[in-house]
Amino acid sequence: MSPSGCVIRSMLFMSGVAMLALPVDAAEPFGLPDPSRMVQDIQVLSHLDFAGRQTGTEGGRRSAEYVADRFDRLGLTPAGPQRMGTERKAWEQTGPVTVTQIEAPATLVFSFPEAHPPGTIVSQLGSQFLPVLDSPSINLTAPLVFVGYGIADPARGWDEYEGVAVRDRVVMFLRGKPPHYPLHVQHAEKEQIARAKGAVGFVTFTGPVLSRYAARRGMGHQPLAFYTNAEDDRPLPGVWISGEIGAAIFHAQALSVTDVQISLNNDRVVHSKALNGLVHMQWTSQRQARSLVNVLGSIPGRDPVLKDDVVILGAHRDHFGNQAGLLFAGADDNASGTAVLLELARMLKNRPASKRTILFASFSGEEQNLLGSTWYVQHPTHPLAHTVAMINVDHVGLGNGELTVGVANMSKDVAVRAAKQAGLSEVVKLYGFFPGGDHVPFTKAGVPTVAVVTAGTHPHFHQASDTPDTIQLDRLDTAARFVLALTQRLANAP
Ligand SMILES: [Zn+2]
Predict the structure, then answer these.
(1) Do 384 and 446 touch, CB atoms closer than 8 A?
(2) Contacting residues for 272 by C-beta, under 8 A, at least 6 apart
(3) What domains, with CATH codes, occur in the chain?
């Protein structure tokens, strides 16, 4: 797509060789972003060499070195907090993280000895279940108790634990909340309630009736990788099952999960009950205190005064790693944003410097409750008071061709003008604050933020199927062109 002289060199995916084989040619100072180069970066970052880039693991560390190496060869300035340290440290900001990894194999079996006829469901890892990633080890067989959406809030008249015994049992609850319940409910709160009530594990799934939000995002009924992120550092072991398995468990009770969910939602009737069935959950999980690594590089501003101001261009690099033997490559999430970051670093470095400093931030720990970006906001390498904007690029490799852009703590004018400059006025759809992503800690700290994601569905979201072959070049290209124009405007505004 680009006329650039970029030679797509053959990728040598031998361990350690991949990063040396990547082209970083400095041609085309005023050219367009090069989608083929971005796709190459996505392929490399999604490769087994990086083992899914889980924060705090060896693969995560290697991905940090890959990005730091690129920053170095592009001629960026190291911008880690220890700029005087050893060469590698100069690019890095490190912070604490607890790494949990589920080892293979993981087993989940439901049995219904009293059903007619008696039955067993052996669930398939990945497509039918995923252990929640910060689950402790478990080897347990226990009765199942359905607790609706898993909410216990008697003060608001909705207590799905009332009158059901869950001690030493495994609770099963739907994702989300009934539409009539007024508060937002975090998964961690459901886990906390289940633990406080004496449950020994949980099973969760997306009910057949999707919330409006889930339907709009194109979310389905597959199990997704995620963390409980409980306050307690030893959460209950838990598993996310597919909607299909959830329905089968109800079917074994001669019940329809659809009818039950409609009644929960519309009739406001609690349907909690002990199920005729047992669940067997078995896996081993490892847990270690390690370091997260944010990689920081800058292009110093040229204006003698405004160079103290900084525009942060951020993209998280981490993903879920290797869990229970499944590789979560994270091509769209967020090798795509990382590739845009690297491509814009190359382009901006080859142009005359902007008035303000541009800080390129490759964050880690995003999938684990935004740990890396939160750490940066708590330990900024440039004062937040001088941070004129933080642009976050996440999930930009798929979609319907439009860009969804969330603007907070600033006027939308600059984004409108950037879209126009990039020839993307028809494509850029502007909204207010988005609640998820690495911009959130910045927004909360009062920094102006712009979150950029490709619009439409991301069907492989948080699944092992998020692989490079699904990436669409023109989506990447659109995101890179808009973010380039936006970064330059913010970095040069009077
Ligand atoms: Zn993610």
Answers:
(1) yes
(2) 145, 146, 147, 148, 160, 161, 162, 163, 164
(3) 18-97+291-492 (3.40.630.10), 104-283 (3.50.30.30)
Distance 318 CA to ligand 1 centre (A): 8
Q: Which residues of 102-135 are buried (b: 16+ CB within 10 A; e: fewer)?
A: beeebbbebbbeeeeeeeebebebbebbbbbbbb
Examine residue 105 and say whether the peptide bond preceding it is cis (omega within 30 degrees of 0): yes
Helices 58-74 and 336-349, interaxial angle, to 10°? 20
Q: What is the pLDDT of residue 485?
A: 96
How many A from CA of 489 to the centre of ligand 1? 28
Residue-wise pLDDT tens digits, 132-165: 999 999 999 999 999 999 999 999 999 999 999 9
Distance between Cα 225 and ligand 1 center (Å): 9
Q: What angle do CA 30, 32, 38 make, to 5 degrees?
A: 125
| Å from CA of 380 to ligand 1 middle | 23
Say yes or no to pLDDT of 462 above 90.
Answer: yes
Give me ligand 1 centre to Cα 316, in Å.
9
For ligand 1, the distance from its centroid to the CA atom of residue 288, given in whole angstroms, is 21
84: CA distance to ligand 1 center in Å?
Answer: 33
- State how far the alpha carbon of 456 is from the alpha carbons of 35, 42, 215, 459, 462, in Å: 20, 20, 11, 9, 16
Q: How many whole angstroms from 317 Cα to the centroid of ligand 1? A: 10
Confidence band of 85 (pLDDT split at 50, 70, 90): low
Average pLDDT over residues 109-115: 92
Give 464 Cα–ligand 1 centroid separation in angstroms.
Answer: 12
Please answer whether residues 392 and 436 qualify as being in contact, where contact means their C-beta atoms are separated by less than 8 angstroms. Answer: no
Query: 38 with 15: CB under 8 angstroms?
Result: no
Mean confidence (pLDDT) of the chain: 91
Q: How many CB atoms are closer than 10 A to CB 83?
A: 13
Distance, CA 333 to ligand 1 centroid (Å)?
A: 5
What is the Å distance from ligand 1's center to 404 Cα? 16
Q: Which residue has 């997260």 as its token pair?
A: 292
pLDDT, tens only, 228-263: 988 777 789 999 999 999 999 999 999 999 999 999
pLDDT in tens, 405-461: 999 999 999 999 999 999 999 999 999 999 999 999 999 999 999 999 999 988 999
CB within 5 A of ion ligand 1: which residues?
333
Neighbours of 323 (CB within 10 A): 25
